[in-house]
Design goal:
About 15% of the residues lie in helices and about 25% in strands. By secondary structure, it is of the alpha+beta class.
Length: about 110
């Protein structure tokens, strides 16, 4: 099993040290849901299709994320609470080079 260590700050301001598998094709939104770090129904509303921005996070420490795609960029262009370091969790697929990633879950609209 290939796991990475990441830090996720929830919407209450509590930081969680999380172990995330890289061999299960999971994205950050699914990790947040599996650890129950956001209230049910407030994250991944669209099912991870980059269509709602409910999984928006602020990247605090970027160990080398893949560049943002057009769909993600377009969705963030319409979202609330967007900052320069905003990304959609559903578009961040867990990979070994994400070791040390730190994010904060953005407020729900």
């Amino acid at each position: 099993m290939s796991d990475i260590n990441i830090k996720i700050t929830d919407r209450e301001g509590v930081t969680h040290d999380v172990v995330a598998p890289t061999d299960m094709s999971m994205n950050l939104m699914e990790i947040i849901r599996s650890y129950e770090l956001a209230e049910e129904g407030t994250i991944g509303v669209c099912g991870g299709m980059a269509m709602c921005a409910s999984c928006q996070v602020y990247v605090i420490n970027d160990p080398g994320l893949e560049p943002m795609g057009d769909e993600e960029d377009a969705m963030l262009g319409e979202a609330f609470h967007v900052q320069e370091n905003s990304r959609l969790g559903c578009q961040l697929h867990m990979a070994m080079d994400m070791e040390g990633l730190e994010v904060e879950i953005a407020p729900y609209p």
